[in-house]
Design a protein that fits this description.
alpha/beta, globular, four-stranded parallel sheet, 91 residues, 1 helix, single chain
Length: 91
């Protein structure tokens, strides 16, 4: 499924899309290519199986919202706490 994520990221890079949906792609880590999305405002990571956010994500200055619903986070980093809108525990 990583190739689908790369396709979506590439499309967002070329169009300057402010929203990127990577939900349900069963990612374990975020592709580094995501770091080039400087106009990204919303990132949907619902059901991606992520357990941590890379620190380089905080360099995306336009990012305002990250949806982590269905992901298994033990702790949201302080730098991301204002961005995360949903990190519901499925249990």
């Amino acid at each position: 499924m990583a190739s689908e994520a790369e396709k979506r990221i590439d499309h967002a890079l070329h169009t300057g899309a402010p929203v990127l949906d990577l939900s349900a792609l069963e990612l374990r880590t975020l592709p580094d290519s995501l770091a080039g999305l400087h106009s990204l405002a919303e990132l949907d990571l619902t059901d991606t199986y992520l357990s941590e956010l890379p620190t380089w994500l905080k360099k995306l200055s336009s990012l305002e919202r990250i949806d982590l619903n269905g992901d298994d986070f033990d702790d949201i980093p302080k730098w991301a706490s204002h961005l995360v809108v949903d990190c519901a525990d499925p249990s």
